[in-house]
What we know:
Two copies of one chain form a homodimer.
Chain A: E1 2-5, E2 12-13, E3 20-28, E4 37-49, E5 59-65, E6 68-72, E7 75-79, E8 83-87, E9 93-97, E10 103-110
Antiparallel strand pairs in A: 2-3, 3-4, 4-10, 5-8, 5-10, 6-7, 6-9
Amino acid sequence: MKITNFRAVEAREVDEPGAKGVKVRWLISEKDGAPNFAMRLFEMEPGGHTPYHKHEWEHEVFVLKGKGDLVTEGNISPLNEGDALLVPADENHQFKNTSEEAFIFLCMIPHRK
Amino acid sequence: MKITNFRAVEAREVDEPGAKGVKVRWLISEKDGAPNFAMRLFEMEPGGHTPYHKHEWEHEVFVLKGKGDLVTEGNISPLNEGDALLVPADENHQFKNTSEEAFIFLCMIPHRK
Lengths: 113, 113
């Protein structure tokens, strides 16, 4: 059993190439004994974005606060509070903050095998 | 790719024995092509609760709104907005709304194999 408020978890700058103004808090991970997937909380400054990239695992995302865009191949989808989204494996994607406030979302990923 | 606001997803009464005043919205599931785990949003009325039970899969929970209790064997933990929790497999647990407002949380579970 683990219970923690997200505010008590360290926010680390995402230093991956192509990321700007993004911090991540790993709320639940393998270290906590989670057997299948991890829960992270991302906070993005105005003007911030994640890399435009793809990888072998899916994302399940829930938007907690703010407004952003999900950029995919040939498409831009606006994101708002309360949106849930599935980004399939092996599809290019990028999250951007399009507002003047923080853009905050949960992003769950399966553990790498 | 799936994007949906939780408000657009049908809220179904949880009719499992021991549940009271609880609705669930399945935001992302196997039907959407999610390969590993599902995202559900639970909304609990004041006085509502889930069954006190255990099962073979874990929960990863994030509290969106309201206040509740997590009841486990020999323990009661208060839950508040922004709390993230891991309920391990095979441990008895129950969620209760202890406030006068709706208690709303996300609950992710692995697909059953």
